Each structure stands twice: as C-alpha cells, then as structure tokens.
Amino acid sequence: MIDTSSAAGQIDLGGSLLTGSGKPFDRRKRLFVMNRLFRYVCIACAAFVCLILFLILLLMFRTGVLTFGDVSFSEFFLSAEWSPETEQYGALLFIFGTFALTLLTLMISVPLSLLIAVFLSTFIPAWLKNVLRPVMDLLVGIPSVVYGYLGLTVLIPIIRDVTGTGMGDGLLAAALVLTIMVLPTISRISDDSISAVPKKFSDASYALGATRFQTVWKVLIPSARSGIMYAVILGMARAIGETMAVVMVIGNTPQIADSLLKPTSVLTSNIVMQIANVPFDSTWNYALYLMGFLLLAISLLMIVGVRWLQRKGAQQ
Amino acid sequence: MSKLNITTADRNPFSGKRGMNSFNNRVFTILVWTLGIAVVLFILGLLFLILKDGLPKLSWSFLFGLPSEIDEGGGIGPALLNSFYILFLSLVIAIPLGMAAGIYLAEFAPDNKLISFVRICVEGLASVPSIIFGLFGIALFVEMFDLGLTILGGAVSLAFLNLPVLTRVTEESIRSVPKELKNASFALGATHLQTIIRALIPAAMNGIITGICLVAGRAFGESAVIILTAGVTTSGEMWDFSLFSPGETLAVHLWYVQSEAIVPDAQDIAQKSAAVLVFFVLLINLVFRIPLWLNSRRMTR
C-alpha cells in the first residue's frame, strides 16, 4: 500500500511535517507540497459548491425581483389571472396548484409508503428483504419523463374511462403519477428508520402481550417518528420540484383547479412550458424567474426544517 | 403459568377487547402483505410494460438513424449520442469537484459553525428542484455568456445538479471508513494525501460508486435541465461532438415526440425511446454495481 522506502521523517498525525534538510526537490518536499496543495484544492471545491448555491440564489432573486417593476406585489401573489399577453401576471393559481398537488400526493403516498416500510422492515425475512430493497431502488432510477409518458398513455385513458370525463388530465392524474414517484423515496427511508429502532423496544412490547399491529402502531412508528418525518419532507421536496412527469399529465391550462379532473398548471410546469418562448428582458420572463425563486425558497426552507428535525431527533 | 394466564383472561372484564385486538392484528397483517405483494408486482409490471412494447421493435436504423420532423421512420441516433455525451461531460466535471469537496468535509474540515453552514449549503443545493438548475443555466450560459442552447451549457448545469449529491455521498462513505485504517496508514508514515488516496478512498469505494451510479442514472434520465439549457433539437448530424451545438437527449426526445412532434409514428417512436431509456438506466445500475459486487465478494473471502 505505502512505499516502504519512504522514510518520511517524524510525522504528526496527518501533519507530515518536513524536518530534515534534503535536496531542494526531494521526495519528502514533493510529498509535503502535494499534501498542502491537495488540501487547498479540496477547500476550493467545497467553497465552489457553496458558491453555486449563492450564485443560483442571487441570479434567481435578481432576475425575479424585476417583476415588481411592472406588477404589484399583491397582484402577483393574490391574483389568479395569468395572461401575460394582456399584462396580467397573477401567480396565485400556480402556487395554489403546487400546494394542492403536493398535499394530494402526500395524502395518497404517505399511508401507502408507511405500510410498505412496515412490510419491508418487520414482515418479511432477511433474504427477501435483500431482494426487494434493490427492486424498490429501481423505481427511483426510472427517469421522470418515462413516468410522465406512462401517465399520459396508460393512466389518463383509465381515468377517462372510470370517471367518464373527456380529458382526464389534471390534479388527480398528476398526484397519482407523483405518488408512484415518491413512494420508493418515502418508504425506503422510513424502512431504514424503522429498522434502526432498537430490537429491545419491540421485544418488550411483545413480552407485554401486544399483538404485531399494536407493536408496529404504538411502538415502532412512534420511535421512528423523526426518521419518518424526514422521509415525508424529502418526498414532499421531490413532489414540489418534479417537472416533466407533471407537465405531461396536468393539462397545462392556467386556471385554478377547483376540481380534481380539471386541467390546471403548477409552478414547475408553467416555467418549463413558457420559458423557451419569452425574451429574456421581459416582465413575463422575470415573473417566471420569480416563480422559480419561490420554488427555491420553499425547498431551502424544507431543508432547514429537516435539519431542525434531525437536531431534535439527536437530542432525544 | 399459561394456565394462570387463561384463567385471568377469562375473568378479565376487557376480554372482549382481546378479540378486537386479534381481529385488528389479522386485518393489519393481511393488508400489509397484500399491499407489499401488490407493490412488487406493480414494479415488475411497470418495467415489463415499458420494455415489452419497445424492445422487440428496435432496429439499428432506429438506434442510429437521424430523427425526422415530418416523415415516418425517424431514428434517435443523435439524441442517444447526446445522452451519453452529456452524461460523460457532466460526470467528468462533477466527479472530481464533488469528491474533492466531500473529502474536504470528511477529512480536513474543522468542526465549527462555518463548516456546519457549508454542510447545510450542500444539503440545500441537493434539494434544489432540477428546473431551477435549468433556469440558472439559461441565465448563465444563454444570457450572460451568450452561447445559446448548447451541449456545454446542458452538461455544466447537469454537473451542478449532481455535484452536491456526490459531495454528500463521498463525505459519508469516507466517514464510515474505520478509524483504525486511517491510523495504521499514518503510523506507516504516510502523509495525509497518501492516506486519503491509498487507504481511505479504496475503502470507501463501495459507497462512492453507488453514489456515482445513482447520479449517472439521474443524469441520463434528466430532462427539465436539458430542455432549458440544451434545447429540444439536435444538430441533425450523427457523431457531432461539438460542444456548441444544440444537444437534445433521449429523455427530452421522448417528451418532445410525445407532446410536440407532428410525425405520424410519434406513438411508436415514444414507445421505443422509453424502452431504450429504461434499458440503459437499468444497464448503468447493473454495470456499475458488478465490480462492486465482485469487490465485496473479494473482501469477504
């Protein structure tokens, strides 16, 4: 592993100081310089990652805030009239759409994923677990356009048949597609956190005569609570930020969704559908960037929430 | 003991609840089993559904042919090529940067407020929706550098998307390497750099490769970023490696054909593209994991 001929002198753990006096560019010196250099390169890279985040925040904010030159604050957030052709930039319907879609997705996916997490962590034997976990991971890997494509070609005709409506695209279709997409995320992380509950907890519960249902419901899930919350927030972040799968099934019509089957639009789908057709220096484009900034702010807030949960979990 | 139990149970005023409990338990057990099996069948069915319609119809002329705007029989050649090209470029950019940042956080970083802030930044960047990277790419490459929609812009934006994931994965896998390994390397007189390169990274390789595989699959299937930064057209030539030509990838092509194109066989192309896309994503997962599997076999033996 390490060259035995390197008599690298006295070494602090990790410090590797040059103590002897060798030739100007002997091996020792080279190692020392490389060591130092590597450290600086690493620092620069870490700084670069942070820099990207701030650059994104700055660019989105700087472009987005220009919207308010032409549109009032209250119009943007409180009006649901989005018709840039006639200078009306009310984003309420997209914000509402995003929240409604996320809520609906979570309402379907959280109970389902919790049951699957319980199935994976407590019901099945270890060998089956080792087979099923990678299968769940496969679902995460399938590209989102493929989900959108399947939603468009398989799910929407089914919705059309079942409900008897003409269109079929809307919040319901989008929420079902998103459910399939966030299901593996939420259930795998919940599975991990349920598996991490000390075995003595469930043993104690069984010893008290509790059934498996009672053990899962009253002991395992409460103990794994912070991990499950973390999973739900991650799933939520994915649902809010998902673009292509939603674009293909939501209908892309700027109207507020007062029914599950009405074509509507959300923040992400509206950005991706319109950004290519607008000039960069227009209020329309600024409004799209402002919507992007909103998405960014929401997702960063969620991360702060996750950190807070983790700290709370660590304190317990 | 058991006899005692039964007699107390008989006198137990709550014995009615017992039947309820076992009923609940049975319902719960049946529910979870059904759901578990249904989900597994659903996943396999989904994969089968995607692959069965597309894979048998594939031909070389489809895989390497040029796409057409009006006539039937267009291929996906340039889009497929761009997919791999952009994937390769983005990995070349993201892997060194992401790994170096991860190594810094795991090995060099002091434990203070600033570094925990850096960690939050990395985590925050990892959760930024992909479309934001697309908007960022437009603002940076299309507006600021005035390049237009290019492969370069797409690859760099995609690399930014993958960077924080790689950083986190590297940090976590290096942290999970046993401390003895590191101390042993120091005790042999290795410098910190030698320790990292020869001892820590090989030991953390499993985790890092899993992360790279995750990121590669995501980059291969990513479409929102590519639509915004590399466009929905190709240069129309095969084997075009120019960094400054528009770079529609296969995932984008699937969306474009399905929702915007006017070719009569759009449905057919979409089916086949979806199958190819999923096939390659599965392949990436498999190819990356085989050495890993061999590695773990070697380690355990």
Question: What can you see in these coordinates?
Answer:
Chain A is an all-alpha fold and about 325 residues long. Chain A folds into two domains: about 25-70; about 75-315, Orthogonal Bundle (MetI-like fold), CATH 1.10.3720.10. Helices cover about 70% and strands about 0% of the residues of chain A. Chain A has twelve helices and two strands. Chain A has helices at about 25-65, 75-80, 90-125, 125-140, 145-165, 170-195, 200-205, 210-225, 225-240, 245-250, 265-275, 285-315, and strands at about 80-85, 90. Chain A has a two-stranded antiparallel ribbon with strand order 1-2. Chain A is globular. Chain A starts with about 25 loop residues before the first helix and ends with a helix. The model of chain A is unreliable at about 1-10 (pLDDT under 50). Chain B has about 300 residues and is mostly helical. Chain B has two domains: about 1-55; about 65-300, MetI-like (MetI-like fold). Chain B is about 75% helix and about 0% strand. Chain B contains twelve helices and no strands. Chain B has helices at about 1-10, 15-55, 60-65, 75-110, 115-125, 130-145, 150-175, 180-185, 190-220, 225-230, 250-260, 265-300. In chain B, helix 4 (about 75-110) packs across helix 11 (about 250-260) and helix 8 packs across helix 9 (about 190-220). The radius of gyration of chain B is 26 Å and the shape is globular. Chain B starts with a helix and ends with a helix. Mean pLDDT of chain B is about 80; it is low at about 1-10. At the A-B interface, helix 1, helix 3, helix 4, helix 5 and helix 8 of A face helix 2, helix 4, helix 5, helix 6 and helix 7 of B.
